[in-house]
Amino acid sequence: LNKPEWYLTQVLMWIGNHAKFLDDKIQPILDKAGSSVNAGLEFSRALVMLILEKLAVDIPCLLYDDTLFCHLVDEVLLFERELYSVHGYLSSFPSCMHILSEESCFQRWLTVEKKFALQKMDSMLSSEAAWISQYKDITDVDEMKVPDCAETFMTLLLVITDRYKNLPTASRKLQFLGLQKELVDDFRIRLTQVMKEESRASLGFRYCAILNAVNYIATVLADWADNV
């Protein structure tokens, strides 16, 4: 259960190792018979079906172990990325995202994603470099004087989007978007709390850094507004 990468990697290797044989030997036979079947894709689809069966058995066993469940999700997402980008798998075919979208598994994924995101926010705001820009010495890069915590937070949101963007239904994607909105509001509250502590020194370093953070986040969210 703690090594889903073993069978996921094995399947990717089988697909890669058989591609030439399927293209050179099997596909011409299908073409000659007037079939529209793509040998390589059908081979991939059959192997993915085996993975779906395996996941359906494994997931209930690790649903409440955060570490194992997170590891499984991470490995499945890596597998899916390679399956589509390297092996040309079709989005209309069955995929692991359908298993991750099933109610009990999906709700657990959302819960765990939120838990780890909040932990990340705790650590980024308690860091000594939280209010310092990592580009502070490069003036042409750092026009917005973005503090490290704001940049890390927006990267966190971007990574979450990258993880859920291939979910098969819009309703599931919207639930993840809801999580992101919660995180933005949580971050806003945290910034407000720090700002109140700094309100006596409104021209101080940290107060200005908070204003820069807010400006940067608002600007990036506006840029993302065109992303359906």
What's the overall geometry? Answer: elongated
Count of helical stretches: 8
> Structural class of the secondary structure composition?
mainly alpha
Contiguous low-pLDDT stretches (5 residues minimum) are none
Number of strands: 0
The share of residues in extended strands comes to under 5%
Rg, Cα atoms, Å: 23 Å
Order of helices and strands, N to C?
HHHHHHHH
Straight-line N-to-C gap: 36 Å
Write down the domain tally: 2
Helix content: over 70%
Instruction: Look at the structure and give the mean pLDDT.
Output: 91
Q: Report the sheet with the most strands, covering strand number, pairing sense and barrel closure.
A: none
What does this structure look like?
The protein has helices at 4-32, 39-62, 66-85, 96-100, 103-126, 148-164, 170-198, 205-224. It is mainly alpha-helical and 228 residues long. The protein folds into 2 domains: 2-100; 106-225. It is elongated and about 80 Å long. The two termini are 36 Å apart. 18% of the residues are buried.
List the helices and strands and how they pair.
Blueprint: H1 4-32, H2 39-62, H3 66-85, H4 96-100, H5 103-126, H6 148-164, H7 170-198, H8 205-224
Organism: Zapornia atra (Henderson crake)
Pfam family, one: RINT1_TIP1
InterPro entries: RINT1_Tip20
